[in-house]
Structures are given as structure tokens and as C-alpha cells.
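hey
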């Protein structure tokens, strides 16, 4: 059915707007539009990844630490414990400002098999030294400090041989010699007399005398000789910077 308006000869025809259907791009077809969108998303991801990887280099972000150079700043004593791995030693050196980076120390250690055989004990090194220098210091026998060897049968006090004047050093003297260490140009030693005085002070328990020896050692009162026979022969390691009482 035709309405009066439809029959008007001068009725305005609807005009098309926009791009003619035949000339429209791939968006009109649906699949091409999604491809262009995925390409755009991929480009954004690539730019973001590049900024994350190259940002520190391009914009001055965090950089790997540089190795120390030179001969270091000051002498310190560090301890290597039984069973310490190279990474554990490296971490301790890093915390004490001896090396700048754990990785560089591990790399230098892998080229020096002597480090794998390092013995527990105390070693003199310097702060702020190259990783390779730190490895070389630790494997150098001259860097070992606080190493004490107590021979079988030695007593606490020195013993002078009758008629010859020769002196067989006692354990106190051996400890005193082993305590000597030169730090930053100053040589420090614990005197044998200070060790003797420490052996006379406080209770036996405060000197860590074992329970089974308390009764027998107590017979000597406060004499330093109450420790006689309680320091066993063998090789011992102690921190030369410790007090005489702590060493005993």
C-alpha cells in the first residue's frame, strides 16, 4: 500500500554518507580489522619490552657494580668456617666491603683451584680490593693469622732447661706468638702475662671448663695452673683481636 507521501513526485531520496561501500577498507570485512588490531598490540608489547631491557642503558638506570681497583683501604681479619663454600665466603667478603660483587669473586675463584682447599681459620685481607686479589690473598699462607699448634706434653708456663738456659715455650707463650698480627702498619700481640692473668680471673665455668674437670681444677683455687692439662695438643684457630679470656 502506498501512502500519499510515497506518491509525491518531488520526494527527496535518502543520500548516502561516508565512504561508499565499494571503497571502504578491510574494517568493513571484519577479519582484516582484527589483524590490524593484533599488529598494533604486538607493537606496543615490543616497545614496552625494549624499554624494560634497554632502559637502564639508555636512561642511566641501575648498572652492574664495577670491580674495585688498587691495593685496598684498610686491613681486616675475616673468618672462614668449617664447610664454607665459595659463595658463602664471597657473601661475607661483600658484607665486609672487601669485594664489590659476589659473581666476580666466584669467577676469579673458579680460575684458582687452591681456594677449594682453603682451611677453616682467620685470614688478613684488605677492604675494597679486586676480586682476583681477594682470592689470591685467601690462598696465600702469609695471610693466615691466629693459627696455634700445641705440641704434645707442653705445659702452660715456659720451662727453662737446667744448665743450658734454653727455654721451652709454654702454651701461654705459644698463644702470644700466634696472636701477633700487623694491621694497617701496627703490629699487635697479646702478652703471655695477660693470658696468665685471664686464667686466674673469674670462675672455671666462665672459662668454659667442662663439667667433668670442674672438681679437679677447683683444687688449684684461683691459680692460673688450674687450667693445666685442659688445653689439648693439636691445631687451633682463634681471632687474634679477641680478648685473652675469650681466646682461652
Amino acid at each position: 500500500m502506498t501512502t500519499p507521501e510515497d506518491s509525491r513526485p518531488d520526494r527527496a531520496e535518502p543520500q548516502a554518507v561516508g565512504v561508499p561501500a565499494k571503497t571502504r577498507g578491510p574494517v568493513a570485512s571484519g577479519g582484516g580489522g582484527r589483524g590490524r588490531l593484533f599488529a598494533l598490540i604486538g607493537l606496543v608489547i615490543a616497545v614496552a619490552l625494549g624499554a624494560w631491557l634497554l632502559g637502564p642503558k639508555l636512561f642511566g638506570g641501575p648498572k652492574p657494580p664495577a670491580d674495585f681497583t688498587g691495593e685496598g683501604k684498610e686491613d681486616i681479619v675475616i673468618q672462614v668456617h668449617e664447610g664454607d663454600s665459595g659463595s658463602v665466603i664471597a657473601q661475607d667478603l661483600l658484607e665486609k666491603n672487601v669485594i664489590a660483587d659476589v659473581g666476580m669473586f666466584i669467577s676469579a675463584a673458579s680460575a684458582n683451584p687452591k681456594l677449594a682447599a682453603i682451611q677453616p681459620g682467620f685470614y688478613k685481607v684488605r677492604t675494597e680490593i679486586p676480586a682476583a686479589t681477594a682470592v689470591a690473598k685467601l690462598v696465600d699462607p702469609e695471610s693466615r693469622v691466629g693459627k696455634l699448634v700445641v705440641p704434645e706434653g707442653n705445659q702452660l708456663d715456659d720451662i727453662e732447661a737446667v744448665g743450658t738456659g734454653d727455654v721451652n715455650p709454654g702454651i701461654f707463650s705459644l698463644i702470644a706468638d700466634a696472636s701477633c698480627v700487623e694491621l694497617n702498619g701496627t703490629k699487635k700481640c697479646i702478652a703471655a702475662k695477660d693470658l696468665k692473668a685471664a686464667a686466674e680471673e673469674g670462675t672455671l665455668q666462665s672459662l668454659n671448663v667442662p663439667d667433668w674437670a670442674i672438681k679437679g681444677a677447683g683444687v688449684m683455687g684461683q691459680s692460673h695452673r688450674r687450667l693445666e692439662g685442659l688445653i689439648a695438643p693439636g691445631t687451633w684457630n682463634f681471632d687474634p683481636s679477641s680478648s685473652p679470656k675469650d681466646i682461652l
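Residues 1-29 have pLDDT under 50 and may be disordered. Residues 31-59 form the longest helix (29 residues).
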